[in-house]
Description:
- By secondary structure, the protein is mainly alpha-helical.
- Helix content is 62%, strand content 5%.
- Among the domains are: 2-130, Winged helix-like DNA-binding domain superfamily/Winged helix DNA-binding domain (Arc Repressor Mutant, subunit A, Orthogonal Bundle); 152-220, Tetratricopeptide repeat domain (Serine Threonine Protein Phosphatase 5, Tetratricopeptide repeat), CATH 1.25.40; 238-376, P-loop containing nucleotide triphosphate hydrolases (Rossmann fold, 3-Layer(aba) Sandwich); 389-480; 483-551, Orthogonal Bundle (Arc Repressor Mutant, subunit A), CATH 1.10.10; 843-1005, Serine Threonine Protein Phosphatase 5, Tetratricopeptide repeat (Alpha Horseshoe).
- The strands form 4 sheets. The protein has a 5-stranded parallel beta sheet, with helices on both faces. It has a 3-stranded antiparallel beta sheet with strand order 3-5-4.
- Helix 24 (485-494) crosses helix 26 (515-522).
- The protein is flat.
- It starts with a strand and ends in a 19-residue tail after the last helix.
Amino acid sequence: MEIGVLGPLQIKSSDGRPFPVPGARLRTLVVLLALDAGRAVSADRLIDGVWGAEPPAAAGNALQALVSRLRRAVPDLVIEAVPTGYRLVLDPDRVDAHRFARLVAEDPAKAVELWRGDPEFPESARAEAVRLRGLWLTARRARLAAEMADRDVVAELEALAAEFPLDESLATLLIRALRRAGNRGRALEVFAGIQRRLADEFGVDPSAELAALHLDLLRETGRRGNLPAEVSSFVGRDGDVRAVRTLAGTHRLVTLTGPGGSGKTRLAVEVGARLPGPVWLAELAPVRDPAELPQAVLTALNLRSPVTLARETTPALARLREAVAAREMLLILDNCEHVIGAAAELADVLLRAAPGLRILATSREPLGIAGERLFPVEPLGLPPAGAGPEVAGRAPAVRLLLDRAPGLTLTRDDTPAVVRVCRALDGIPLAIELAAARSRTLPVGVLADRLADRFRLLTGGSRTALPRHRTLRAVVDWSWDLLSEPERRMWRRLALLPGGADVAAVERVCGPDLDPLAALVDKSLLVLGADGRYRMLETIRGYGLERLDEAGETEDARRAIAGHLLDLAREAEPRLRRAEQLTWMRRLAVEHDNLHAAVRAAIVAADRATAVAFCAALGFYWWLGGHRAEGTALCREAMALPGAADQAELALVYAFSAINGIEGLMEFTEVQAAFRNAWGAAAGVDGAHPLLRLLQPLVTLSSADRGDDLFGGARALLDDPDPWLRAVAVMFIAQIRLNFGEDLETAEAELRQALAGFRAVGERWGLGSTLTALADLAAARGDREGAVACQREALALIEEVGLREELPQFRVKLAHQLWLTGDLDGAREMLDRAEEHAREDGGAAVTAAVRHGRAAIALAEGRVDEARELAAATLRVIDRSTVAPQFRALAYTTAGLAEGAAGDLDRAGRLHREALRTAVAVLDGPVVATALAGAADLAARAGDPARAATLLGAADAVRGSRDRSDQHSDRVERAARAALGDAGFEESYRRGAGVTMRTALDAAAEGPHRERREDHQEPGRPDQ
Length: 1024
């Protein structure tokens, strides 16, 4: 046996097989015995450790019972009773804590590997936990000291020093590591920090070793140049420092580029501090005349040789060239962008004159001379949207904000606002520091809400900073002022594209001249991505929008962009129903932000024609791409605008609002009304779009009114020239048959015909929808393996096309089908994946579907309490949201089954009645049948087997056959047959044959648990 107590308790057999130990008390007992493995542990110590200050009345007997439970839980664990207590018969070296204590002195690296986290010891063993943690720190220090020569250990030592701020040995190691990395400025900060803390806490000075190390640092720093000692910590760019150090070691000219406020200067200084040899900083921001640049650098370097002193009349550039010619040094030319030509000429002259010179420049655009290597300084890493405190706290942008705003902490309440601030500011360090300053006077939630007006809000920069770094507007103004008018025009027009643009879009929106485009990239105002798209940071974009409005060009630019994007959407729309579906989905996804911004801009401008045209072209993309909520909202807003619009496009928008809203985003009555409005708007217009020709069947399906030809006009589409529409029509006809419980063999044949049609055109939504219907049929007739095969293929297709809203439901359905085959592990894994997706999606319908799936399986496995809890949670979700009534009926049925299994027949009756009312209202045959089968379960539990048999007969009549995937119905039938006999069961079963969907509610209302008269009125929600 192996026992691990360094971290969460682990027990493993010799072959590595884990033994879970259930319950906190059992785990505490194991820990106490393991800490004294091989030795007797007194009963008093064990009782104190397990129960603390509140031991049970018969503590000895309780301890004995607990030991017996432990022996049963881990049979291989040998625990002997001894006169004073108990002894764990185990070599101490089999317990990681004992092995760890021995290895700390022998092999610190191996000791550290054993540590899985802080020990979870009871209060009575707290001293032992403190001892082991102290040993862990000793081992960590020893290992890092040994590894310092071979790798960069600064980050690990920084983290440890933050955890143990008074540990002088740790501070000494950190200072040595920083000095080795060339970061003497930070090393001096570390010494000053521990010197202050030692004085405040203990009134003592640092040790002699630490003081001597400090003196060495001071002597070295004095020889190195004129780098300033920073007064704030350096956060989030250790990887950039390493990368630039490497570049500077192999290239004589490295330029750090990036937009204003991105941290170029601070990064350059940090790199300089960590490089060997003299490093000099020349700040060029104050220089206004390019001719004064050589003198400014000469003054900054303070390099005066006898030659230069004797030749004051010699031009400054010549004197500077002579002064550096024989020196080895790093020269940082900071802020070159406003004198870029002169800076480039100066760098070229000096590099040619001085073989030992290296230059590290910072600029918003490259110097553009031979030998230059560029390093773009990117914004700080951002936390994911919606990140919790732990994940957010690891993001560099968040770390900087917290460092600069000491009063701000990552509480559960504040974290969402902190994440919003960092993401809204693009991770730009200066913007984050300005926000941190503002957080001293504004709650972080208010700050996050007001960043839409960021240029007015972020104005509290350091009084000692350069003027252009004191406000966010000043930072961007500096860049604007350095541009030509064509460059400014391109900036403000491209600001209307939040998703960036490719070259074709730039030419369409801004004209054919691409020189300004190249200039904006060079000046760090546009970023060219690996995908060939040009993007702006949000702060740069916001500034551009302001300038666009000032120039009076907003409407002209909006129309140009709308024209470009509408052409793309219209070109893509028919291809979304063909084999090239994925290619065009990707093209639209790339433009997603731009497309939606264009729709919203049209709505704001009250341009109904354009807004409706966009919604008509994007409706199917929204359906396929998992953007149904946003699509539904945009359709509604476009339709609500005054003014004219193309009548065919308006009909499409009504239809797409219903299609995208049907999964819980709209009330079902709203969906029905939208389909009727679409049908009315389409009257008399050209039905070139297949959805317009499909409107009559959609109205039929949503209203449950089959119409004169029984299939709502779908038959008329069987000869349509569009192969996709023909396949949809066949699928609709089959679905209508299934809804009305008609000839299942014919329906299955039609589904297979539709499947062939969808395969021929390569459309994945149709394939997936048809396959999942075939999976349902296979499961209902008992072909469980066939059901799994169909559902797996359906799920793969849905995943491929990106139908986010339907993925969890498809996974839940596959989980149930896997469970039916006996693959319990596969079912649970599929449910876990569905739940993970539901957490990410956050939609009520998706969350409810996953909980309902878990409840159904828990109930089938006999875990009644868990099923009740999950079913009730499902009802709470759907009662606060709009979901499809079919799903609502299924959820109430499952809740009723769970309450019936728990013995609460009154509550079960109310739930089953609500399920039937809801199902009958939409006349969905399989759902009505499921609700009737639920009522049969209630009758059987109420002691009325004849009524249970009749209701089973009604369910099968409405569905058209028995659903062999419904184990509850099989159980009810067995119980009813046992009570009535075969003949009696068949007689009662046949009484249900005449029940239809429309009479199902009356049929279920008969018997001992029939509804009271008042139950026929709108009941509100039943108990949950």
